[in-house]
Write a structure and sequence with these properties.
Layout: H1 8-19, H2 25-47, H3 62-66, H4 70-82, H5 88-108, H6 135-142, H7 148-160, H8 164-168, E1 175-176, E2 179-183, E3 189-193, H9 196-208, H10 232-245, H11 255-268, H12 273-280, H13 285-288, H14 296-304
Antiparallel strand pairs: 1-2, 2-3
Length: 313
């Protein structure tokens, strides 16, 4: 299918996202999708057509964008909710896209005097409690691993709380002694300490490795059987396979759930929230605070153990 032609200002914005703001290609594609849908909707309204009938947005001009007001954005958000059935999370992403785009148009390009997205509210998203494995489940999960490479991957997830994209992008040069340099969101680097479990797993993986990297770029730390760098989808398949082979068969177990498991266990073991924020690579401590939940059973035990509870005895 031929890619839809874009207005120049939209192309400029997408380039700005990756080259200046350091956004990932994945984030860029999400913003591109959201803006394309918005401009298709905007043209459909102007031309009294359906969104499905609008397949070319290249006609959008700066004058068209200057004429957009807050009510147009509200109308688009209503369309996303009612017609497309978008969840609050999906709509929140579209709001973030529109805010970023109009901020660029006004602040960087000086093409509009008033930013219509300034007053656009973000839909409230109920913060979900992280889904994770307890210690017994994690130990059972590890029994389903049959290769030193996959065991090393699991150790990095469970010990370091690394993101799957970060794991895929690790290179041989990322390791300096006992320290690992991770490139996170927005190309922000952080250095984390490799504990004994990680080092032992890494040593076993390197000793067992027979696959040769076939690419021309810098050699990845983890190489697929085809001799290529891992993709997020491949790692997800590996985790799913281990979940089944271990007999654990925990529902919807993904690499991200292993990250949740790592963070939750570190917090329960006494990690302070600031240290956890650095290890996980969160830009805001508010994101890290989702791991400060404590199980109801543990709270009940704390209250049971309160010395004043003994007064009735």
């Amino acid at each position: 299918m031929e890619k839809m032609k874009q207005p120049k200002i939209m192309r400029d914005f997408l380039i700005y996202l990756t080259t200046i703001k350091g956004k990932s290609q994945r984030t860029r594609k999400e913003y591109e999708y959201d803006l394309t849908l918005f401009f298709r909707f905007h043209l459909a309204i102007q031309q009294d057509r359906t969104v499905e009938q609008v397949m070319d947005i290249s006609s959008i001009t700066i004058e068209d964008i200057q004429a957009i007001v807050l009510e147009d954005l509200y109308l688009f958000m209503e369309y996303c909710e009612v017609q497309r059935g978008n969840s609050a999370a999906a709509r929140a992403r579209k709001v973030a896209t529109l805010k970023s785009f109009f901020k660029y148009i006004k602040g960087k390009r000086r093409l509009i005097e008033e930013n219509p997205a300034d007053e656009l509210e973000t839909p409230k998203i109920g913060r979900k409690r992280p889904i994770y494995m307890n210690m017994e489940e994690a130990q059972q999960f590890l029994t389903g691993i049959s290769s030193a490479r996959n065991y090393c991957i699991a150790m990095f997830f469970l010990n370091l709380g690394i993101r799957v994209t970060e794991l895929c992008e690790l290179n041989q040069s990322s390791i300096q002694g006992r320290y690992l340099t991770i490139v996170g969101k927005g190309n922000k680097e952080r250095t984390v300490y490799l504990n004994d479990s990680c080092l032992q797993a890494l040593k076993a993986y390197k000793e067992s490795k027979t696959t040769v990297f076939k690419g021309a770029d810098e050699e990845p730390l983890f190489i697929s059987q085809k001799g290529t760098r891992f993709t997020r989808q491949t790692v997800a398949k590996i985790i799913k396979q281990i979940n089944q082979q271990s007999g654990l068969q925990k529902e919807r177990l993904t690499p991200h759930k292993l990250r949740h498991t790592s963070a939750t266990m570190m917090y329960k073991a006494g990690a302070d929230i600031r240290s956890l924020q650095h290890i996980l690579g969160h830009s805001s401590v508010a994101t890290t605070q989702i791991y400060t939940h404590i199980e109801n059973e543990e709270l009940q035990q704390v209250l049971e153990n309160n010395p004043f509870n003994r007064l009735q005895e």
